[in-house]
Amino acid sequence: MSIEFLYVAKILVRVMNYSDRRLEVTEAAWRVIIREGLDRTSMRAIAQELGSSTGVVTHYFRDKDELMLFALERVFEKLFKDMEASAKGRQGLDRLEQMILAALPTSALGVSGWQVWIAFLGYAIGRENLVQEHRKRYYSLCHIICQELADLQAAKLIREDMDLTLEANALIALFDGIGTGVVINPEQFPVEQQQYLVRRYLNTLAATF
Questions:
Q1: pTM of the prediction?
Q2: What is the CATH number of the domain that holds 73?
Q3: Can you give the pLDDT at residue 164?
Q4: What is the pLDDT of residues 47-65, one digit of tens each?
Q5: 39-48 in b/e burial notation, b at 16+ Cβ within 10 A?
Q6: Are 17 and 74 in the same domain?
Q7: Looking at the structure, do residues 36 and 137 belong to the same domain, yes or no?
Q8: Res. 182: pLDDT tops 80
C-alpha cells in the first residue's frame, strides 16, 4: 500500500469523523430544542446534552446561528430524501400523494422533525440570513412539486387549466397547516385525517373525462 494512499485514507477518515461529530452535535441540538424550546437552546445547553464542554461544540460551529443553519439543512435534507423514497415505484396521483404524506408528521419521528422546523421558523424572524435560507428551501420544495404536477398534466391525469405554481404553493400551504396542527393539536390530526385531507385536495386536481 503506497504512502500516498495511506495519506489520502487518513484525510478521508478525519473528514468523516468531523462530519459524524457535527451530526451528533446537531442531534443533541434537536433534542434540546424539542425539550426546552429554541429560545432556551444555548451552546452550553447543547454541550451539556452532548456530555461535553462548550468548547467541543464551538469547535464544530462558531455560534448558535451557524449550528441552527446546519440543523435546518439536515431537516430539509431528510424531508427531500423521504419524499424521494416514497415516490419510487409509484405513478400518477398516487405518487404525488405519497410524496406529500412523506412530508407530514405521520409518526413520532416525523412530529419531532416538525417541532424543530416550526421552532426554526420562529427563530428566523428578525434574522434575514435565516429567512433567506428558509426561502431557498421552500423554493426547492415548490420546484419539486411543480415538476410532479407538470408530469401529471402531460399525462392528462390532472386538469389542463391549472396554474402549476399556484397549485404547488397550495399543496405546501396544506401540509404546512397540517404539520403545524399536529404539533399544536395532535388529537385533531390523526394519521387518517392527514391522509383524508391530502386525498381530498388531490381529487380536485384530477382530470374529468
A1: 0.79
A2: 1.10.357.10
A3: 94
A4: 898 888 888 888 888 888 8
A5: eebebebbbe
A6: no
A7: no
A8: yes
For 30, the grid coordinates are 434537536
The range of the structural domain enclosing residue 207 comes to 65-209
Residue 197 cell numbers, joined: 385531507
42 and 124, same domain (yes or no): no
Domain end: 61, 84, 111, which one?
Answer: 61
Do 47 and 77 fall into the same domain?
no
CATH code at 15? 1.10.10
Flag whether pLDDT at 10 surpasses 80.
Answer: no
Reference 72, options 15, 127, 29; nearest CA is 29
Cα dihedral angle (67, 69, 75, 76), rounded to 10 degrees? -160
Residues 92 and 170: their CA atoms lie apart, in Å, by 19
- Domain count for the chain, please give it: 2
Grid cell of 209 as nine digits: 373525462
Cα–Cα distance between 123 and 130 in angstroms, integer? 8
